[in-house]
From TrEMBL:
<comment type="function">
    <text>Specifically methylates the uridine in position 2552 of 23S rRNA at the 2'-O position of the ribose in the fully assembled 50S ribosomal subunit.</text>
</comment>
<comment type="similarity">
    <text>Belongs to the class I-like SAM-binding methyltransferase superfamily. RNA methyltransferase RlmE family.</text>
</comment>
<keyword id="KW-0489">Methyltransferase</keyword>
<keyword id="KW-0963">Cytoplasm</keyword>
<dbReference type="InterPro" id="IPR050082">
    <property type="entry name" value="RNA_methyltr_RlmE"/>
</dbReference>
<keyword id="KW-0949">S-adenosyl-L-methionine</keyword>
<feature type="binding site">
    <location>
        <position position="147"/>
    </location>
    <ligand>
        <name>S-adenosyl-L-methionine</name>
    </ligand>
</feature>
<dbReference type="InterPro" id="IPR002877">
    <property type="entry name" value="RNA_MeTrfase_FtsJ_dom"/>
</dbReference>
<protein>
    <recommendedName>
        <fullName>Ribosomal RNA large subunit methyltransferase E</fullName>
        <ecNumber>2.1.1.166</ecNumber>
    </recommendedName>
</protein>
<dbReference type="GO" id="GO:0005737">
    <property type="term" value="C:cytoplasm"/>
</dbReference>
<dbReference type="InterPro" id="IPR029063">
    <property type="entry name" value="SAM-dependent_MTases_sf"/>
</dbReference>
<feature type="binding site">
    <location>
        <position position="83"/>
    </location>
    <ligand>
        <name>S-adenosyl-L-methionine</name>
    </ligand>
</feature>
<keyword id="KW-0808">Transferase</keyword>
<feature type="binding site">
    <location>
        <position position="107"/>
    </location>
    <ligand>
        <name>S-adenosyl-L-methionine</name>
    </ligand>
</feature>
<feature type="binding site">
    <location>
        <position position="85"/>
    </location>
    <ligand>
        <name>S-adenosyl-L-methionine</name>
    </ligand>
</feature>
<feature type="domain" description="Ribosomal RNA methyltransferase FtsJ">
    <location>
        <begin position="51"/>
        <end position="230"/>
    </location>
</feature>
<feature type="active site" description="Proton acceptor">
    <location>
        <position position="187"/>
    </location>
</feature>
Length: 243
């Protein structure tokens, strides 16, 4: 069960909140980020449990709420770096005792290897990326996870368009590799999924919901869309051709 870290984790050993002074050459935004990291209970708990990032708890909490990983055997992790979600997947599959599980991850950023998973350092939008992922999967996926987000520019509309573009590319891939009944999970920004993208999901999945896990910082604009019950590629094609 994914339990939130204790509140005392937000403070130093003395029980006082850690404050960071602005050093010469360090931007104010960098100082604020560092202070937030030092006072974040999820960051401390991730270190304690050996996770590479606090984001691991987002997947743990989403799985607890939606039972995403129950019965899954093949999973794709898009935007996997630094590997927190992949670590959670390996742990869950190891506990299940199944021998034929397959975890494939991809990110444009380098990642240290994770035993029990195949990781690719490549831009997911590269033309050859989908084929390489499918070759490693060796069969249809039960779940496609996407924690991808475009680098922020500071311009909200631009950031939204770029991140939703990644979500759309991830959905295209998911609809190509998912087993009927499979699940697609992707990061979106505040306001939820764009209308056209949401309409496509509702056509090809039996359930589409939005969630913001507790591990997602309150001030963050990120949400997640959970599309479950994939209807299958043949049905998807029929839906697209319908008037």
């Amino acid at each position: 069960m994914a339990r939130p870290p204790e509140k005392r984790g937000t403070r130093g050993r003395s029980g006082l909140k850690v404050r960071v002074r602005t050093a010469r050459g360090r931007k104010l935004s960098s100082t604020r980020w560092l202070q937030r990291q030092l006072n974040d209970p999820y960051v401390e708990e991730a270190r304690r449990q050996g996770y590479r990032s606090r984001a691991a708890f987002k997947l743990l909490e989403l799985d607890e709420k939606f039972q995403l990983l129950k019965g899954a055997r093949r999973v794709v992790d898009l935007g996997a770096a630094p590997g927190g979600w992949t670590q959670v997947l390996v742990e869950r599959f190891t506990r299940s005792g199944q021998k034929d599980n397959k975890i494939v991850g991809i990110d444009i950023l380098p990642m240290d290897p994770i035993s029990g998973a195949d990781l690719i350092e490549m831009d997911f939008l590269a033309p050859q990326a989908p084929d390489e992922l499918k070759a490693l999967l060796g069969g249809p996926a039960d779940i496609v996870l996407s924690d991808m987000a475009a680098p922020t520019t500071g311009h909200k509309q631009t950031d939204h368009i770029r991140t939703m573009g990644l979500c759309e590319a991830a959905l295209d891939f998911a609809m190509d590799v998912l087993e009927p009944g499979g699940t697609f999970v992707a990061k979106v920004l505040r306001g939820g999924t764009d209308d056209d993208l949401l309409r496509r999901m509702k056509l090809h999945f039996s359930s589409v919901r939005h969630a913001k896990p507790p591990a997602s910082r309150p001030e963050s604009v990120e949400w997640y869309v959970i599309a479950s019950g994939f209807t299958g590629k043949s049905q998807a094609l029929n839906d697209q051709s319908a008037p």
